[in-house]
Design goal:
Blueprint: H1 3-26, H2 32-52, H3 56-62, H4 64-93, H5 110-117, E1 123-128, H6 136-150, E2 154-158, H7 165-170, E3 180-185, E4 188-191, H8 197-208, E5 213-218, H9 235-243, E6 246-251, E7 263-269, H10 277-288, E8 292-296, H11 306-310, E9 314-316, E10 320-322, E11 337-338, E12 340-341, E13 354-355, E14 362-364, E15 374-378, E16 384-386, H12 389-393, E17 403-404, E18 408-416, E19 428-434, H13 444-447, H14 451-462, H15 485-516
Helix pairs in contact: 1-2, 1-15
Amino acid sequence: MNSKTLGQVLGAVGVAILVSSPILLLFGAAGSGFVLWQAIIGLLLIGAFLAFDPGQVGRVISGKGTFFAATAGGLGLLLVAAVAVGNYVAASSFPAQWDLTKNKIFTLAPDTQKTLKGLTQTVHAYAFYTPSDRDYAGVRDLLQRYHDVGGDKFTYQFVDPDKSPAKVREFGIKKDSGPALVVALGKQQDKVQAVSEEGLTNAIVKISHGGEKKIYFTTGHGEADIKDTQATGYSQVVKALANEGIQSDTLNLLDVKEIPKDAEAIVIAGPQKRFLDPEVKLLSDYLKVGGHVAVLLEPQVRSGLSGLMKQYGIQANDDEIIDPLSRLAGTNLDVPVVGNYAQHAITKDFNETTVFPTCRSLTALSDPSAPRPLALATTNPTAWGETDFAQLAQGKASPEGMVRGSLAVAIVASKTLPAGRTDDRSSEIRLAVFGDSEFPDNRWGAIGPGNQDLFMNTVSWMAGDTDRITIRPRSRAASHLTMGQREMTLVQFFSIDVLPVTLLAVGIAIWRVRRSK
């Protein structure tokens, strides 16, 4: 390589380094001191090019190629400027975002949007975080998405615990407990237990619904345990209800003379033994004055509640639902997969799949004296009600001679009471019956996409909390690549400076060497 060619190569590298310097500074991939030294090196390399071939400057300036290159460069700069200005104007006047992530982790769930748009008073969030906290940026983005939907009905501010000890004391934040997020509405406030969309939405619901409501789960008949954390327990769904302001307690009907006055609903979850006549009478009297009862049954169990249910047009059949299509969904034949729902407050906009392990079918009776029941959820037409339990115990089932078709797994009945009755609990009797009690438990509530929502919607309907009938937000995990400041700087430096400069320098050098031959 002769001195002339070497000079052209050095000049090409110098131009590339000089051009990349302001870009590097613009994107913040390096400090101003580094950029300054890079620019100086670029100028020195260009100077070396001129030293190796002093006459090149005149030839370059007077050449036609320089004129066309300058024209093309000028037009290119004008185009870049026009695009930049257009982009700025569009972003300022018509802001828009697109969530292209697989799980839509940057889009608020329909339930969250419904909650925010339904706020009648301003909810204010206090984020006790410092900019150095690891989750600061994520919490800021989450709160901003809530504000974008809620507008002036949802506001937020960050509070530095070290600089605002008075706020820390006011909200009872423990200094050694780490960052915290609190939502407030007037004098009501609630600390977000898990800083996520689900946790924040639940906290907003609790403070905006004006107090907690209470439901009772019956005991004494082998029902599901609301405190049991094992697979068959109800601890998870009870916790989810508490997050929405509905507290749960247990009730043994033999220990009371009447249903507690604070009971919004009574839940009978999978009784294994018969209810005695005094217990059935207590439930019947409660329903007659506007009570709300949910009954979750199991196949081959005589609960003693058939007479009570028939008073409201609901019959529990002595069978077990078998559905061949369940195999396609990855479950057993006796775990019907349900996706057909009636138009009702409980299932409004509900499009989630539910599964009902070992479920008996239900029938809506046409009794003129009873309220008109509604089949809330039904199976696929391929299902049938198997009554040969001996054959079923051997793992065999046949549809011959069985009732086939879309079988009801859940039926609801309601009746409006006459106005002016002072002893009524509410203005409407509400009864919901399910052919299965396992679908909302700790195991199946997590397996069936809509299992927990369907049960919670039913409880919300019973408690008169119809605005909580929805599909609730899930905790959606994103794929994260965690890098420190050093790694981030290196990635920026190599992607914005080293790689483009190398390619540009090689291109210019090849072009200059070829032109000089």
